[in-house]
Structures are given as structure tokens and as C-alpha cells.
Amino acid sequence: MIDSKNAMPDVVLLAGPTASGKSALAISVARQIGGEIVNADSMQVYSELQILSARPAQDEMGGVPHHLFGHISGAQQYDTARWLADATEIILKTLPARPIVLVGGTGLYFSALERGLSELPAIPEEVRSGVRQRFGKVGAEALHAQLKKVDPMAALRIKPHDGQRIQRALEVMEATGRSMFDQPQPEPETLPLHGLSVRRVILEPSRAELHDRISRRFDVMVDAGALAEVEKLLARGLPEDRTVLKAIGVPEFRAHLSGELSLEQAVADAKTATRRYAKRQSTWFRNQMDGRWERIWHPHELNLAE
Fold first, then answer.
1. What pTM was computed for the model?
2. Distance separating alpha carbons of residues 100 and 192, to the nearest angstrom
3. Exposure winner among 66, 180, 229, 236, fewest CB in 10 A?
4. Residues in contact with 109: Cβ distance below 8 Å, sequence separation at least 6, in sequence order
5. Per-residue model confidence as pLDDT tens digits over 249-289
6. What Å distances lie between residue 50 and 121, 217, 292, CA to CA?
7. Are 101 and 37 in contact, with CB atoms under 8 Å apart?
8. How far is CA 299 from CA 32, 100, 199, 302, in A?
9. DSSP per-residue string spanning 181-193
10. What are 114-133's pLDDT values in tens digits?
């Protein structure tokens, strides 16, 4: 794979924590290189979360084509494998006619794009149904405790509330005797970015600036109708394991709507949750993204022609 700062890249990977300003930067970059934008944020895929996910509105897109934004119903489960398949299809269709800017804060998406996903085996139905039955009886956190005993590697990488991935990890371990993170990896030439010139950028403002941006952005979300957006989402009566219900702001506003929290406290809790999420994102970028990624504090530091 070729990386060059002396020519316009085929692909720009633009990562950053929530509220860092990467969406606006992506539009600026795409206009500079005549490219199109592909979403790499796991919450901006859901059609119901226009406001809370800070998904760019049509009039904010600057005339740049955007892909994989709001294209999935929250009733569906959407995982990294599905995103990788969707993103790969768009990359293959768009290049070489126009370059691509992939922008988002979901580290797993960028990792899958560059390294691929483990080739997980088919799971026998008896194993799958057995794990599902246990999940139905004890719930995600208890099942995570079981996973910790049999597959510590997976338990470290999967959050205790992520029921879907916990079940998958247990299924793979029980079916193969190996962790889902210790399965055969795809060959490099099969990866979607193989042979392309790639520029990798992490936009990461100072902690003080990021916290200020998070607070101000959430206030804007509230003014724009975030509470009504959550109320409409909850009215659909989706199953509790749907990922869309875990988006920051949904649990907090849900607690307000049920009378458990004042609106002021719900907003404060959501801001706190956002700051914690941004910290986890930054930790991922620091530990999982190698030296090929350049780090900038402000958008004006990025010069694709340098």
C-alpha cells in the first residue's frame, strides 16, 4: 500500500473523537480533492438519529455526495461486518473516478477496513440456540461474566452490555475452541484499500477544547429537538437489545421521559457520557492506530498538497 504526502491520495481516512469537528473537515477535504464521503460512525448509520448522532443534514453537506448516513433502520442490528461490506462496495464503485474520504469515530470500522475481519466459522444451530437461551435467562452482563472465564481476550474487548457481540463470542468459542479474535485473517490483497494511496489523519483537539465543544454541541442538539427525536424512537417499541437505543442521549432522555430525571439532569448526564465516550475513542486511536496515522489538533493543520 502506498502512502504519499506529495500527491493527492485515492483515500483519506479521517478519524476523531465525537464533537472534534471531523465532519466539517471531511467536507472541506472532499471538496479539495473532488471526492465523496463515506460514513465510518456506528450511530450515524441509523435513520432515526439525525440530531443525536450529529449526522450532517442535506444543507450541511456542501454539495458533496455522502454515503452510509442514515441508511439503516434502528429496528435492524448493524455490525462491523455489514458496514465493511457496504463501505467496500461504495469504494469499488467510486474509485478510480473519484477519491473517497472515510470519516467517523468508530475505531473498529477503520480497523476492519485496513486489516479485515477474522474469517469466523459457521456456527452449528444447536450451539447458537443454546447461547441464545442462556442470554434470554440471565442477560448480557451475566453472560459477559461467563465469557470472561472461557475467553478473557474477547471479554476485554467486548463491553458487558453488548449482548449481540457477547453471544457471538461465546458461539465461536464453543464451536471452535478458539477466540473470535484468534481466527484466520484475510489476505492483504483482498482488503479494499490494497494498492491505493491512503492518507490517515486523526483530528484530536485538546481535552479542554473538546469538552467545550461537546457541551455546546449537546445544547444545540436539545434546541434542535433531540428530546422529541428520542420520544419518537421510543414510541416504536423496539427490542431492548437494539443498538440504536444505546446511543448517548437516548438512555438519559428516556429516564427524563419516565420521570426519573429532570431535563437539566438528563442533559448533564448525557454530556458526561459523551465526554467519557470521547476519552475511550481517544484511547483507542492512541493504542490501536499505528505510526502511519498523523495527528492534528486543528483542521487548518491538514494540508493534503504538502
1. 0.82
2. 12
3. 236
4. 40, 41, 42, 80, 83, 84, 87
5. 999 999 999 999 999 999 999 999 999 999 999 999 998 89
6. 36, 14, 32
7. yes
8. 13, 18, 15, 6
9. TSSPPPPGGGSTT
10. 988 877 677 888 998 899 89
